[in-house]
Give the backbone structure.
Amino acid sequence: MRNLLGGKGANLSEMTNAKLPVPPGFIITTEACNAYFTHDKQFPEGMWDQVLAAIKTLEESTGKRLGDSRNPLLVSARSGARVSMPGMMDTVLNIGLNQKVLKGFAELTGNERVAWDAYRRLIQMFGNIVKEIDRHKFEAILDEYKAKTSGGRDTDLTVAMLKDVVHDFKALYKAELGKKFPDEPLEQIREAIGAVFNSWFGAPATAYRNAEGIPHDWGTAVNIQTMVFGNMGERSGTGVAFTRNPATGEKIVWGEYLLNAQGEDVVAGIRTPHPISELEDDMPKIWKEFIKISDRLERHYRDMQDLEFTIEREKLWMLQTRTGKRTAFAAVKIAVDMVNEGLIKKKDAILRVNPIQIDQFLHPRFDPEAVEKAKNKGNLLAWGLNASPGAATGHAIFDADTAAERGQAGEKVILVRPETNPDDVHGMIESQGILTQRGGMTSHAAVVARGWGKACVAGCETIAIDMDTRSFRVGDKVVREGDYISIDGTTGAVFKGKISTIEASFDEESELVTLLTWADEIRKLGVWTNADNANDAARARAFGAEGIGLCRTEHMFFEEERRPLVVKMIMSEDESERQILLDQLLPFQREDFEDIFRAMDGFPVIVRLIDPPMHEFLPTKDELNEEICQLKLNIKNNPTPAKQKRLKKKLKETENLLDIVESMWEVNPMMGLRGCRAGISYPGLTEMQVRAIFEAACNVTKEGIKVYPEVMIPLVSHVNELMLEREKLEKVAKDVMKEKKSPLDYKFGLMIETPRAALTADIVAKYADFFSFGTNDLTQMTYGVSRDDAEGKFLRHYITWGILPNNPFEILDRDGVGALMKMAIEKGRKANPTLEIGGCGEHFGEPSSVEFSHIVGLNYVSASPFRVPIARLAAAQAAIQHKYGRK
Ligand code: ADP
Ligand code: MG
Ligand code: MG
């Protein structure tokens, strides 16, 4: 009955039903709260009468009476919504106290101090929470008296002092409100109920709901509950505990308690609480009972519980139980342990872990204690963007060459740069992590680091890097080259000095691997990976990838020895010249593919034929113009004929290159000569690639390796492009297999990344063995938004202004791009029933997009290596929650 009673109330009721020791009480429902707000903040009709009747019942069952000085009933008014909103709403304790009741209460308990302390707390809470008097004003009075004691703590206040505090509190109350503090218990209750209702629309609760997406019309219940007192001397106390360790998941009751304390003293940090395990020595009987209850509650709710309890003169009372919040590590361990203990099913365990959190397992992280220490020492320097998760510690190095050198020598280094570019890659490889001053989440440093699973903090604007002195400065703190720094790519924090790290682990024995194995038993979607080289492929396989869904071939052309060949190839004037250059490129490609096929032994590998804007290989127009000017100037100033001749020759070459660059220049390169258009325009280019793929495949087959090559033709928009490329390329493939006498199980297919390809899926499917949705480009073209231009600019505003619910490049747009996909899948499969359909955009490592892929019935999703485990879990969750391939 959580919706009606709120989480706290429902659980208190359930504990009561289970005959656990819960202070008696009653609950005013969330419905009443909502009615209160629709009735102009008046209690709904009949509610107050019901409250009075419930109080009567409470009096009968406890034998205590409201306002009775001989045996007074005191209560708390506690908020409690459907879902836990920790600390966001209000609770008033000790309701029912007044000067007269207090005397009797003191006599009854034999403890005058408790009575006065409870009274001053009531006035304080009531004044602050119900009447909104600034809480600092109460605290100032309290501090004044505490200062007069030798210990300076709450508990050091004498009875006489507490009486003075009460006097001053009441005076403050009167001065602030012009009215006396209400001594009538029923009035206190009525006002407290209203205040708890009102706290539903208080600023903190409203903000919390907005952040968490909790509806504003749920309302809060009010729990009126008999007070129990943990502050009745050394045989009393109060505490909070988790049934398992919420940080590690270890199955051991974990928490803290304080003797002689009430309610929130434990969390408030007034005194340092003791670890719960010490209760065993302090009160062995209570400890035993508590452990039993804790175990019972966990079995009942079949999840780790977060408990509040109070001990009143050696009697244990349970005040709250709820599902405990936990770290990713605890979530996984608890879920797996509970299956092994027979508490929950595998399916439940799979649903209990947020796939995104798995990422935390795959990267090293800082030891939380060491981080605390560093913060306390003032070593936290700055915050940047948490661009690539993981923690790294090492010597700060300010250029890539030095980083590469020292890294190779076995030192731990962190590359610190204003920003990075492709020339820094060799230094990035050898670094533990990368820190940049400029650039966003999609900057070069961020993208490269994420690909490798290296920690990266990007765009850390507050570090002022000075390349002359090779140092950076934050305020008055200076970090020089060679100094130790630590960066946390998960949070974006940058520290001075060394912080110890805990290594990532993905070993067979771990709970995470167990959970993922269970996920594999359930999921329908295949999980493949995007990998461009053998290293990434091997890593992805270790993470559980079942194929390569996208192997890009561009980078193979960008590498140092190969790039000049590519440039010459682009510029070559006749076919035969071009062919010579392509023949030189072929062995490089073949070797790359051989390595990848070996790493993926037994699994399919989709190789995408070249798809870069060709102009990226050439210098820019501006660069060339500048060079030409310079050459002309030099010719003028250089009279020696020999030199003149050389310079003129160079000038001619450069002018030639400029002509070519100008002829290739595109206003809109992202919609220019890309994908299969390049393959079609440069005869021999994709033929060379396919030859390399099949030669490699045949070669490694001879080594006993199983290869399933799939050739993917990119950026098709018209079926004729596909037909043309496929016909010419399949011929090459067949030739190679014949030459090598090695038949292979291969496929040809296309990437669906233009809306037109999706719209004509039934036509293209006839010439394809597979489709793979390239959702990055498909999203760009469906929205008509260029990602590179939009993401840092208007798209960000669109999201903050609520024009878009989220970034469509991160979370697949189901209504638009998704509709195209659905249609293409349906049409494609109808035209070609054996069509294999997958997806290889960045989306496919994101849980909601994986869920959608399951719903529409893709055969597999392909995610970057570090997202493979996330996709495995997300696919299993989708399989539990949705039918596969729903029409
Ligand atoms: P929150 O939801 O913010 O934790 P609670 O309603 O749980 O608020 O109450 C705040 C504190 O007061 C808790 O420490 C709780 O244990 C204590 N408390 C609430 N009601 C009682 C009661 N009837 N007797 C003793 N302590 C109580
Ligand atoms: Mg609580
Ligand atoms: Mg593309």
